[in-house]
Amino acid sequence: MAKLSSINKNERRKKLVKKYSGQYAKLRAIADDESKDDTERLIARLKMAEIPRNANPTRVRNRCEVTGRSRAYYRKFRLSRIMLRELGNKGLIPGLTKSSW
Question: Are residues 42 and 20 in the same domain?
């Protein structure tokens, strides 16, 4: 199980991303639009820099829903490889069968 502080920190980041997502998207669109003035684009970049760093979507880490483990994460199931195997062996994940050869 991951440290509770790491899990909580990631949850706080998710909330910040959600809070600033609209503002961040608008500024990002202006900053990336090459048809606009360079000064206007620069102003948008400076405003983006004023937004908290943890509001950037790339700072959110994918974590296992059960254990909070951040590595070996399967997006489709939202689980780590360890929990995927355990729950799959118990038959708790529909459509998942353990292969053997």
Answer: yes
- pTM for the full model? 0.77
Q: What digits encode the pLDDT tens for the residues 14-31?
A: 999 999 999 999 999 999
**Gyration radius of the chain's alpha carbons:** 20
* Residue (of 24, 29, 92) closest to 53 by Cα position: 24
Q: For residues 71 and 87, give the distance between their C-alpha atoms in angstroms, rounded to a whole number.
A: 17
Same domain for 52 and 67, yes or no, is no
The answer to whether residues 69 and 75 touch, using CB atoms and an 8 Å cutoff, is no
